[in-house]
Records
---
Amino acid sequence: TEALADVAWSPTESQFVAVGGAATGRVLTSPDGITWTLRYSPAYFFNALGRSEAKDLWITVGESGHIYTSPDGTTWTSRTSGTTQALSEVTYSPSLDLWVTVGLGGTILTSPDGTTWTARTSGVTTSLWDVSWSSTDGYFVVCGDNNVVLTSTNGTTWVAQTASPGSTNWYAIGTDKDRKSTRLNSSHVSESRMPS
């Protein structure tokens, strides 16, 4: 049995795609969430999955800097990330037409097409666990270990934000229409208002 790390639905393709793995990687698809078909099984695992309906593109990221793209969830192509750091999350900004992935060692990479990736300076060396795009305010938000919260309006320049006091490792982040940022760790939830 292999663990699954992420799943997403495509209304355009009318299918779910799930990724994960442990000893080996897993990419599976399903039309109904009940019956699943194994599509790809590399020697390394995936941590996260991103989807752009406008581009009809799937992107999965994971162990040792591996990035794969697919037009249909079935056929996957390896892309050069330029890093060996594990990548933990990936997201897409329709407004900027830009992909962002984050990972260990303060890694942030951006791409306009999922094929060519560029390393960006995060200003931190701690692990980054999640990245989210706020369509309301037009910025990315990243969270990670040691109370790290970063924002960027273009994916290139990243600004450290003041988070709640104490040394806390944040594993997930999301934003809402009221510019409130919600961060989650293993024990509690924190909410703060992000800059406008």
Note: The CA atoms of residues 8 and 180 lie 24 Å apart.
---
Amino acid sequence: YVNASTESLSISVKPSDSGSGVKAVSGDYGEKVTETNGTYTISLNVAALKDEKIPSTGTITVEVIDNVGKTGYATVQYEKDTVLPTVAITSHSNGDIVNKTITLKGSTTESQGLAKVEIFAVDTSDTLLETFEGNAGFNWSYEKIDTTKIYNGTGTKDLPIKVVATDNAGNKSKAQEIKLKIDQKLLLSLRFLQEV
């Protein structure tokens, strides 16, 4: 898969010819071809995909010609995917009051293959809390947020959370963001009542 921001698509092949040897390697669309130690890299300018000069879904054929004019072929399928995945936090809503250890749950929608889902604590430099790879990101559950390690005072503290999904073409979802509020006072009050 390639997406709208992908600049190039590279295909590497290592043809062999036990007779006359390889003379030339080329692709369907006049791609740039480079050779290093017998490995040929064909680079497709994906900008052409955006201009629809090349079909958005199809096959690139690599042609190999030996020194006596015989040809061989290899094909690689590709698909342009510009649809962003969507991700949702289902366990909490913006402004929810939390304390102790919480479990954050959510789901992701993506039809062409999911690469990962990342959960961040939002601060001056977003802190990555967890990554769910592949299919684990469709219905995810993060059970390790101990709010007492973030704030254990008698007041309140905001806990901004951001979740982002990335598909196999590199498209990133719009970030799903919520701001939770840590409040441990309720626990302190309950402990006081139990002691009384």
Note: The two ends are 64 Å apart (CA to CA).
---
Amino acid sequence: PYQLSLHVRHPSVDPEQISRELGLEATESIRAGEPRQSRSGVAATAVHGETYWAAVLDPMGWSGPATVAQRMTRTTGSESRVKTGSAVTQQFLSALLPQEAKVLRARFGLEEGDVMPPGSLGWGIILVCYCMAVRHGQFLAQLREQGGSLTLLAAVEPEALAGLRITPQMGRQLHDLGLTVRIEVPNNREFNPDLN
């Protein structure tokens, strides 16, 4: 019921470098200095003033520790990629050793038996933040120091917001990463926040 994507804006970095450093294929990218497409069809003289890069994130495929991914492969007997979102996160959490789960819970301020269920948007955000901090922290800090910005976009169905809670520890992790989280709910006439 949700999809996470990472969006990077930067004054000059090559989008290919972002893809290489993060190990992700861009779904959309524009390099600073490239000519803009002209709406009128006449040759464009303007250029893009900044680099823009975006990629969809699979919380397990991108965030999961290699040891967990290997355990999941052994239990499922498949090398194939799994779906994005809640099923992946639940599969990831069930493959965690108790000590690994304990480390993640402590780092993000979650109690054992917390109301945020495995597979939820909250856990998806936690997995992405953890991976960004541990595996890509230096590169992302360099981008920010050079004037770049990072946004984690969560496109969600209303039910994906159930139990979402941002703890002070999670807020600190987001702050330390310089990561803005933007949540978008589709325009749905049946969804009425006053009734839900």
Note: Confidence is low (pLDDT under 50) at residues 66-86, 191-196.
---
Amino acid sequence: PKPDQAEGPPPGRNLFAYAGFDQLFGGSLAGKFADRLYQMAMLAAGMVVFAGTDSETVLADIQIWATVPLLVAYPLIGTLIDGVDRRRLMYVVMALKGLVVFGFLWLLWPVTEQASSAVLAGVAHYWKFGFVIVFVISLLDAPFAPARAAAIPDVAPPEQRGLGASLMATSGLIALLLGTAAGGYIAQTRAHEVFG
């Protein structure tokens, strides 16, 4: 539908009853929740692998590698968003991010099996690939938020677009809280299983 012709019930009805908005909201919530789980896993892994050495520097480096791509990509995203199918773009972004995360799992898999000093030293040696994974995931994620915001007029009527934008922002905060809590719990539980 055109931006001013979102399909759904008459004005004044529940925004989630409009075609596509519930999917956009749910997909955004699930995607951000998964992002937060991954970020918590990466931070926890850095603390484990570099415990007692330079773990503080590693944690700072993770945040830097995750932020720099956004600074570079955001000024260029507008033209891209206007010229493509935003829904398809978001699907592609999430699929590619999922594939890249498998590289992170490959990097840390030895630690989940045996946390000996030799294993940790081996993972530390290849940790630079972890920074590359963080960089690539952040770069892939750059178009997602602008595409999501630009898609709101496609799935919400004009009089409820402000509410739609607020709900989208709220979904990000909910995912942040739930993902952080779940990621922290999983990391702590797994650490007890591995290290005793």
Note: The first helix runs from residue 21 to 49.
